[in-house]
Known about the structure:
- This protein has one domain (5-217): SOS response associated peptidase-like (hypothetical protein yedk fold), CATH 3.90.1680.
- It is 12% helix and 32% strand.
- The chain has five helices and twelve strands.
- The chain has helices spanning 11-18, 83-91, 153-156, 171-175, 182-186; strands at residues 5-7, 29-32, 37-44, 47-55, 73-75, 93-98, 100-107, 110-118, 124-134, 140-150, 161-163, 197-201.
- A five-stranded antiparallel sheet has the order 2-1-7-8-12, with no helix packed on it. The protein has a five-stranded mixed beta barrel with strand order 3-4-10-9-6.
Amino acid sequence: MCGRYAITTAPEAMRQLFRYKEMPDFPPRYNVAPSQPVPVVRLWEGERQFALMRWGLIPAFVKDPKMISLLFNARGETVNERPAFRNAMKRRRCLIPANGFYEWRRDGASNRPYFVQRKDGGPLAFAGLWETWVGPNGEELDTAAIVTTDASPLIRSIHHRMPVILPPETWDMWLDTMRVDEQMAAALIAPARDDLLEVYEVSPAVNRAVHDGSELIARYAAPPVAEQPGPAKPSRKAKKDDRQQSLF
């Protein structure tokens, strides 16, 4: 599962890395949440194109988006079978740029957030799918989902799922739906190598989508639990020494 992520690469650096012609100007985001607009890279008329889409895929056959759950993740093992994702896997695959993602580990009654990023802090590309939903009045909405897979050993102690992170040498293959069919593309769905990533605990402030600052991806040291005072011990009165006179 991937329910929050960060994208902080400067626009021009990202443009050079993903090789699209558009020159978008967007601020760094440290707490991207489902239903928000997200940058994607897709193949359009044979060239890579930058586009903003809503995070949460709406299949083309849906009549009323309010009647379905928000499909912000697509399970990689069944992406070629589920009607919600099957057509997008055939014809509309994309890259979703990121610099890292959050996962939560259950700890008693609470969930503790962790951030996963490249060891060198560089950008990543999630495998994504996109669709254009057309409403009853002709309105159009581009939407996208992140493809997920089983967690790598590094991530498994925190969560059992993770986004599919595509190495740069596979980007063309994932994007090219004309020459690479859905079965060949599905071979790219796998956990990332553990030697690529690092994971560390971050502040619980990330739990609220209204928080969106660089402090969210800082390493977090939980405050020590204050030691509770134990029961008071009965005082021990000094024994009276009858050999000395008291002044009181």
